[in-house]
Backbone:
C-alpha cells in the first residue's frame, strides 16, 4: 500500500509518519513537503534511510510536480497535512494561506481524480466551526455545527473542507475529513503556544500571554490524533466528517502556569500582551461520533502528555534551538516586539 503524506516534515505529519511506519511496516510512505519555514527535514532523519520511505521536496500547488509524483508512485491513499497553520501569520498576510490551504488542496484532489485513489483524507481543524462562548460549557462542536470562521487561517481550512465535500459529491472522490482540536507533543514549531512558552521559560524570557489568558482550547496529544486518522483511513466512511478531540479544555493562562511549575520557573515571567485580532474565545469538540462509529478514544491524558512534551523539548534542545535562530528571531521581533 503506497500512501502519500503531504506536509510530513511538519509537526503532526512527521508524528503521523513515525506512527504509520511503526504500526504498518508493510506500507510505503511518500512524503511530499515544500519545506517552508515550518517544515524541517532533520525531523525525518530517523526514517530517511528506510526502504519503504521516500521524501520529495515539492509544493502541493505545483500541478506538474504533483501529477509527476502520482505517475511515479500510483498511491492508493493521500493524507493531506500540508498547510500554512499559524493564525497570527494568517492575520499578517492571508495570501499564502489561500494559496496552499485552498488551491493546493484542489491540485491534490485533481491528481487523485486523474490517477484514481482509494482515499483522499483532508486533515482539518475544529477552528472551522468558529468559537463558543466562555460561559456555556454545555455547548460543544459536533460535525453538524455550521462552519463559522474567524481568521484567514480557519477560513482557508473551511474552504478546503467545502471543496473536498464538493469533489466527493460531484465527482465521487472517496474523501474523508477529520476536524481535530489543538495538538501538542514533540516536533511542534515553537511559534505555537506550548513550545513557545517552554522555549521562552527555559531562556528566562517573558511569556507573552494574549489578552487576559482566559481563552480556552481543547488539547489533544499528537499521537492520539495520528491514531484517529489511521482509524478513519481503515474504518471511516467516505463522504464523512469526524471530529477528533480529547474533552480536555484548558485556559491558556493555566497551561502557561503549569509549564512554569513543571520547569521550576517563576510566574513573574508571564507578561500580558495585546490580544490577537478576532481571537476565538473557546474551542470544544464533541468526539461522540468517532467514538461510537470507530471506537476511538484518546489514550494520553493532559497531565501525562504535557510532562512527556516538556521532557522531549528538554532532551531535544538542538532541534528547536536551531529553529530559534535566524528567520524565527525576525518573526518574533515583528510579532512580539511592540506588543
Ligand atoms: P505545521 O505548520 O507544523 O507543518 C506544516 C507542514 O506543511 C510543513 O512541513 C510545511 O513545510 C508543509 N507545507 C506548507 N505548505 C506547503 C505546500 N504548499 N506544499 C507542500 N508542503 C507544504 O503544521 P501542523 O501543526 O503539523 O498541522 C498539520 C495539519 O493539521 C494542517 O493541515 C493543520 O491545519 C491541521 N491541524 C493542526 C492542528 C494543530 O494543533 N497543530 C490542529 C488541527 C488540525
Ligand atoms: P496557538 O498555539 O497559536 O493555536 P490556535 O490559535 O490555533 O489555537 O494559540 C493557542 C492559544 O494561545 C490561543 O488562544 C492564542 C494563545 N497564545 C498566547 O496567548 N500567546 C502566544 O504567544 C501564542 C503563540 C498563543
Residues:
Amino acid at each position: 500500500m503506497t500512501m502519500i503524506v503531504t506536509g510530513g516534515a511538519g509537526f503532526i505529519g512527521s508524528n503521523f509518519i513515525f506512527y504509520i511506519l511503526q504500526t504498518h511496516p508493510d506500507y510505503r510512505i511518500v512524503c511530499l513537503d515544500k519545506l517552508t519555514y515550518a517544515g524541517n527535514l532533520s525531523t525525518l532523519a530517523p526514517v530517511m534511510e528506510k526502504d519503504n520511505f521516500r521524501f520529495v521536496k515539492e509544493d502541493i500547488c505545483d500541478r506538474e510536480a504533483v501529477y509527476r509524483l502520482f505517475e511515479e508512485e500510483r498511491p492508493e491513499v493521500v493524507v493531506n497535512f500540508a498547510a500554512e497553520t499559524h493564525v497570527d501569520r494568517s492575520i499578517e498576510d492571508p495570501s499564502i494561506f489561500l494559496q496552499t490551504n485552498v488551491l493546493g488542496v484542489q491540485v491534490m484532489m485533481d491528481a487523485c481524480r486523474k490517477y484514481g485513489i482509494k482515499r483522499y483524507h483532508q486533515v482539518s481543524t475544529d477552528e472551522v466551526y468558529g468559537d463558543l462562548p466562555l460561559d456555556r460549557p454545555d455547548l460543544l462542536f459536533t460535525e453538524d455545527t455550521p462552519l463559522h470562521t474567524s481568521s484567514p487561517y480557519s477560513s482557508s481550512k473551511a474552504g478546503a473542507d467545502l471543496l473536498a465535500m464538493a469533489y466527493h459529491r460531484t465527482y465521487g472522490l472517496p474523501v474523508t475529513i477529520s476536524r481535530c482540536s489543538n495538538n501538542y507533543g514533540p516536533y511542534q514549531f515553537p511559534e505555537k503556544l506550548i513550545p513557545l512558552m517552554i522555549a521562552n521559560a527555559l531562556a528566562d524570557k517573558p511569556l507573552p500571554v494574549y489578552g487576559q489568558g482566559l481563552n480556552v482550547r481543547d488539547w489533544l496529544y499528537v499521537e492520539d490524533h495520528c491514531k484517529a486518522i489511521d482509524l478513519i483511513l481503515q474504518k471511516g466512511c467516505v463522504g464523512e466528517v469526524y471530529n477528533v478531540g480529547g474533552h480536555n479544555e484548558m485556559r491558556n493562562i493555566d497551561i502557561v502556569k503549569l509549564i512554569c511549575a513543571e520547569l521550576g520557573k517563576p510566574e513573574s515571567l508571564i507578561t500580558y500582551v495585546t490580544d490577537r485580532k478576532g481571537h476565538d474565545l473557546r474551542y470544544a469538540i464533541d468526539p461522540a461520533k468517532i467514538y461510537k462509529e470507530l471506537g476511538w478514544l484518546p489514550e494520553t491524558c493532559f497531565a501525562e502528555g504535557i510532562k512527556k512534551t516538556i521532557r522531549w523539548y528538554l532532551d531535544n534542545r538542538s532541534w528547536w534551538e536551531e529553529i530559534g535562530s535566524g528567520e524565527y528571531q525576525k518573526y518574533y521581533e515583528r510579532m512580539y516586539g511592540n506588543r
Summary: The radius of gyration is 19 Å.
